Amino acid sequence: MNSLPVTPTEKWAAIGALAAALVALAKKMFTRNRKPKAEYITRLEFHQGLDAVRDRINAGYLALGDKLDATQKALLTAIHSQGATFEQRLDTLETNLARLDERTTARRR
What we know:
The chain is an all-alpha fold. The protein is built from two helices and no strands. It is elongated. The N and C termini lie far apart (about 105 Å).
């Protein structure tokens, strides 16, 4: 196997890349993760926050209920409209079939 000769510049570039990778790895492994300091709140602030969250959740439920009601009304309207159209088409078909029956029974006699 015949390989290309490695130039000194390539050697130094490889050594530099390896050194940078080792430094990054060491920095990631050996730095301490400092925990954030706790920020204490009063009982009043806690309950105000809970009330705000509860209000947002309730508003979400009410909005969802309104959307469901609107969707249900739209679906019922669409079903009613399609049902009326279907009924009209059946009436027309029944009328045409009755006419056809009258024509064919008159010829049989």
